[in-house]
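Homework help board

Subject: predicted structure for assignment chain

Our instructor gave us this sequence and asked us to write out the predicted structure in token form, then describe one feature. I got the tokens but I'm not sure how to describe them. Can anyone check?
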Amino acid sequence: MNEEPLYERVGGEEFFRELVAAFYDGIATDALLAPLYPEYPDFEPAKDRLALFLIQYWGGPHTYMEQRGHPRLRMRHLSFVVGEKERDHWLMHMASAVEKVCDGRDGGADIAKELLDYFVPAADHLRNDQPLGLRP
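My token output:
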């Protein structure tokens, strides 16, 4: 099946910028996660990086790759301890953001499922508190 990329189905960049803004609204008040951000308390650079990554991942322009190279997400997160608690907080904020931007949108439930089907395993993959093969 030749399905249109999610980037196109949600209307492009604006959707992902809105998703990232909603996500960082939660991160900004999270005592566990907020201090992990290198530019804390300024989240604008992180917002831009995440938005560009998501835009590229979901079929939009490759601006992230042009500016930062290959995403190498696990490597980029190795300087932070990402355990179950950090993963769970991250997912809580992302799920809330997904709900916010998808609620009331045509096809919103399907879009939310598609996003979370990516975010849940991706967040678990970024855990670095145990070797990949030793996780419960």
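Reply (TA_rk): Your tokens look well-formed. For the description, you could write something like this. The CA atoms of residues 10 and 106 lie 9 Å apart. That's the kind of observation they're looking for.
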